[in-house]
Amino acid sequence: QVQLVESGGGLVQAGGSLRLSCAASGRTFSTYAMGWFRQAPGKDHEFVATITASGGHTYYPDSVKGRFTISRDNVKNTMYLQMNTLKAEDTAVYYCKAFRTEDIYWGQGTQVTVSS
After folding, report:
1. How far is it, in rounded angstroms, from Cα 35 to Cα 110?
2. Read out DSSP for 4-35?
3. Cβ atoms < 10 Å from Cβ of 97
4. What pLDDT score was predicted for residue 7?
């Protein structure tokens, strides 16, 4: 029903920026809250950012607050994560998520590597 494809990952130097995109298929995209999560090797899955279905509210943990910005375009069916002032500890696979009650979809992830 909903397919999610991440893009925009890659290798960047510490202090640099990347913009991740999550392109969604499905005509009900605008009814889903969405978010970004990440997982570094040997570490737990970590919340990065979420955005409500309308885009009216966003949420971030302290680890990325002030550096990352989540946004969405419900006309283009795309969600974004703008990552600025990247740190080595941001290195991880980043996953896109769309969710409603009893309805959750995940992308397959995009690698972000930050070199110091």
Report:
1. 14
2. EEEE--EEEETT--EEEEEEEESTTGGGSEEE
3. 20
4. 97
Token readout for 110 is: 């995009």
Which tokens sit at 74?
A: 């419900």
**pLDDT tens string 58-110:** 999 999 999 999 999 999 999 999 999 999 999 999 999 999 998 999 999 99
Eight-state DSSP code of residue 105: E
Rounded distance, CA 94 to CA 9, Å? 8
| 81 neighbors 20 (Cβ within 8 angstroms) | yes
In Å, how far are 59, 63, 83, 89, 90 from 15, measured between CA atoms?
A: 22, 15, 10, 12, 11
